[in-house]
Design brief:
single chain; 119 residues; alpha/beta; three-stranded parallel beta sheet; two-stranded antiparallel ribbon; globular
């Protein structure tokens, strides 16, 4: 029994952020294969190219807010999508979108390691 990883390449040029993220999440879940099982991580590597050429509207960049909490009083931090892209790049915005679309179980971390983003 040989475990070969299936490599899927996606060109992100001209595609919208949410549509692209849901397509990637379905592939990382393994729903495109006939051997889909929700308790198994498939042998799939998804490689995304041209992430900087994704289509994101200016309204989305200004209004989309990511929140986190440090654990201290008054420790709620907010960052907009435009600030995130400026600070960490388009790849991180796509990574956060895909992360939110995967089921929140122990396999989420395993599946996210199989996502490769090139700007």
């Amino acid at each position: 029994m040989v475990n070969t990883q299936e490599k899927i390449s996606i060109n992100a040029a001209g595609k919208r952020l949410g549509c692209l993220a849901s397509e990637i999440a379905n592939m990382l879940n393994g729903k495109h294969t006939p051997a889909y099982a929700p308790n198994k991580a498939p042998n799939v590597v998804v490689e995304v190219s041209n992430a900087a050429q994704m289509q994101i509207s200016e309204k989305k960049k200004d209004n989309k807010i990511y929140e986190r909490y440090t654990g201290y009083f008054g420790g709620r931090k907010e960052i907009t999508l435009a600030q995130l892209i400026e600070k960490k790049g388009y790849g991180e915005a796509l990574r956060k979108a895909v992360y939110g679309m995967l089921p929140g179980n122990r396999l989420r971390k395993v599946k996210m390691k199989k996502l490769q983003i090139n700007e």
